[in-house]
Amino acid sequence: MKWSWKIGTFAGIDVYLHTTFFLLIGWIAISYWIAQNSIAAVVSGVGFILALFGSVVLHEYGHALTARKYGVKTRDITLYPIGGVASLERIPDEPRQEFWVALAGPAVNVVIAAVLFIWLSITSAMEPLSSISLTGGSFIERLMVTNLILVGFNLIPAFPMDGGRILRSLLAMRMEYTSATSVAASIGQGFAFLFGFIGLFTNPFLLFIAFFVWIGAANESRMVQMKSALSGIPVSRAMLTHYQAIGPEEPLSNAVEHILSGSQQDFPVVEDGKVVGVLTKGNIFRGLKQYGDGAKVAQVMEKDFVIADSHEMLETAFAHLQDCGCHTLPVLHQNQLVGLVTMDNIGEFIRIQSTLKTAA
Ligand code: ZN
Fold first, then answer.
1. Among 94, 131, 299, 307, whose CB has the most other CB atoms within 10 angstroms?
2. Planar angle of CA 65, 153, 77, nearest 5 degrees
3. 46-105 residue pLDDT tens
4. What percent of the chain has pLDDT over 70?
5. Looking at residue 141, what is its pLDDT?
6. 330 beta partners
7. To 5 degrees, how large is the angle CA 19–CA 23–CA 27?
8. All domains of the chain in start order, with CATH
9. β partners of residue 277
10. Separation of 142 CA from ligand 1 center, angstroms?
11. Residues with CB in 5 Å of ion ligand 1
12. Ligand 1 mean position to 53 CA, how many Å?
C-alpha cells in the first residue's frame, strides 16, 4: 500500500500528504476536545495546524522553484507530521546554487511572517507576545510566531535541516565537496549530541530531533562519499556481465524459473539483439496475479526505461538509478546490451574499493 495521499499538483509538482499526518490531526483534535470540550476549539486547533502546514508547503515550494531556476527538477513534495520534504532529483553541483536553494525555504517563512506582521500592524490587532501560546491567542499572531520558529529551527546548522545544507555550501566554496560535507556532518552530529543531552533533562521531543539529525548527518556524508568514490570510473568496470535476458514473447513462467534459479531481480527484455524493455520482479508478481503465468513478458514489462552507456561514469549511472527509483539499468554499448548495473552491485563495488584502499 502507498502511504501518501496526493492532495494536488501545483506549478507542475505533485503534493502528497503522508498517512501519519492524519494521526497528528486526530491527536490535535482529541487533545483540544479533552482540554476545552468544544467543537469550536477543535476547529480552530485543527485549522491552525492546517495553516501552519500551508506555510510548510510554501517553504518547500521555495526550495523547489529555486532549484527549478537552476535546472533541477523536483519529483514531489510530501508532508509528514514533522515537516515537509521536497524531493529534488539531485543537489545542484555549484555550492552557490545549493546555498540559494537551501536558503529559499526559510526565506519564504520570513516573508510570510513579515506579511502577517504588516497585516497585524495595519489592523492594530497585535497583542503582547506574552498572551500568545501554542493553543491560545490571536490566530494570525500565532501563525506569525510559528513561522519565525520554523525559520529558527530550519537554520540549525545540521543535516537534514536547511541550515546543514547552507553550512555545507559555504564550506564547499572554500574546500573540496566531500570534506565540506564531512565537516558539516560532524558539526551537525555535535548539535545532535547537544540536543539529546538537553533533551534528557528537559523535553523528550528534543531526543527525537537529536536522533533524526544524527541519522540525517550520517546519511548525507555516506551519500557524498559514495558519489566521490564513483566519479571517474566507467560503468563497464562495475557492471554485471553474467546475467539472464528474456524475450518479449516468452511466458512469465520462464521469468519465474529465472528468479528461482538465480539472484537476479530485474531482466532485460531483448528482441533481435535490441533491448525493448525491462522486466522487474514487481512486474512479474503483478503480471502473475493479473494474468497468470501464461502471460507474455511484453504484456507486463516496463517499456519506459532508463539505460546506461558502458563508457558513462558510474557516478552518472548512480544518479540515474536514484532519479528513476529503479533497481537495474541495462548497459549498452553501440546499441548492444553488454551488461547490467544495479544499486547492489554499485554498493559492492564501493565496498571492494574501500577494502582495497585500507589494505594498501
Ligand atoms: Zn527547508
1. 307
2. 35
3. 888 888 889 989 999 999 999 899 888 888 888 877 677 887 777 777 889 999 999 999
4. 94
5. 87
6. 340
7. 165
8. 1-155 (no CATH), 157-230 (no CATH), 235-359 (3.10.580.10)
9. 269
10. 20
11. 105, 162
12. 13
